[in-house]
Amino acid sequence: MKLKERVAFIDQKLEELYPDPPIPLDHVDPYTLLIAVLLSAQCTDARVNKVTPALFQLASTPEEMAQRSVDEINAIVRPCGLAPRKAKAIHELSHLLIKRHKAQVPESMDALEALPGVGHKTASVVMAQAFGVSSFPVDTHIHRLAQRWKLTNGKSVAQTEKDLKRHFVEDRWNSLHLQIIYYGREYCPAHACHGLACPICKTCFPERKNKVQNRKA
C-alpha cells in the first residue's frame, strides 16, 4: 500500500474506532490539565488520575499551589516517578504563572515552554486540549506507531511531529493525537502486535506476516 493510501486508511480507521476520543487525564481547567500532563511524563495516565485528586484537594490554582511547600507536593506526587523534580517544577511554575501571567495558563507555545518542567510535548497537549489550538503532540508511543506504520523516517520525536503534520490535515491533528494513543493501547502495543496483528498493520503491511510465515516454514 502506497503512503497516500496508507495515510487515508489509517485516518479513516482511527476516526471509525474513536470518533470522539476523551482526554485521558482528569482535569477541570487549563491549570489542572497542565499539572496532570507534567506529572504524566514517564508515568501512566491511570496513575496520574489516582494522584491528582489529592493534589488538587491540596491546591488547585497557582495561588494555592504557590503557598504549599515542595515537600507537601512531593509527598502526594511521589507515585508518579521523578517526584522531587516534578514537585519542584509544579511549585516554581505556579509562582511564575502568578508573576508573569496573572495566574493564568498562557495560550502560547513559547510561554508554556518557558515554564519549569514544561517541554514541547506538554505544551502541545495543553494547547490542543485546553485551548483547541491545532497541535500534534508526539510522545514515545505515537513516535513508535508512526515508525511502525512507516509514516516517518525520523529518528527523533521532533521529526515525527513534522511528518505527521505533513501527512494529515490540520483540523485532524488534535483528535489524531488521542486516537493513536487509544489505538496503540488497545490494538497495537509495543510487545504484542509487532506490526503483524492489529487491523492497521495487517491491512497496510500484509507482507510482514508472509515474511514471518516464510521464515517459520
What's the short story on this structure?
By secondary structure, the chain is an all-alpha fold. The chain has 13 helices and no strands. The chain has two domains: 3-20 and 137-216, Helix-hairpin-Helix base-excision DNA repair enzymes (C-terminal) (Endonuclease Iii, domain 2), CATH 1.10.1670; 30-129, Endonuclease III, domain 1, CATH 1.10.340.
Descriptive overview:
The protein is an all-alpha fold and 217 residues long. The protein has 2 domains: 98 residues, Endonuclease Iii, domain 2 (Orthogonal Bundle), CATH 1.10.1670.10; 100 residues, Orthogonal Bundle (Endonuclease III, domain 1), CATH 1.10.340.30. The chain has 13 helices and no strands. Helix 1 crosses helix 11, helix 2 runs antiparallel to helix 8 and helix 5 packs across helix 6.
What is Rg?
19 Å
Low-pLDDT ranges: none
CATH architecture annotation of the largest domain: Orthogonal Bundle
The CA-CA distance between the termini, in Å, is: 25 Å
Q: Portion of residues in helices? A: 55-70%
SSE order, as H and E? HHHHHHHHHHHHH
Number of domains: 2
What structural class results from the helix and strand content?
A: mainly alpha
Number of strands: 0
Q: What percent of residues are in strands?
A: under 5%
CATH topology of the largest domain: Endonuclease III, domain 1
CATH superfamily of the largest domain: Hypothetical protein, domain 2
The helix count comes to: 13
Anisotropy-based shape: elongated
Mean pLDDT over all positions: 94
For this structure, what is the CATH class of the largest domain? Answer: Mainly Alpha
Report the sheet with the most strands, covering strand number, pairing sense and barrel closure: none
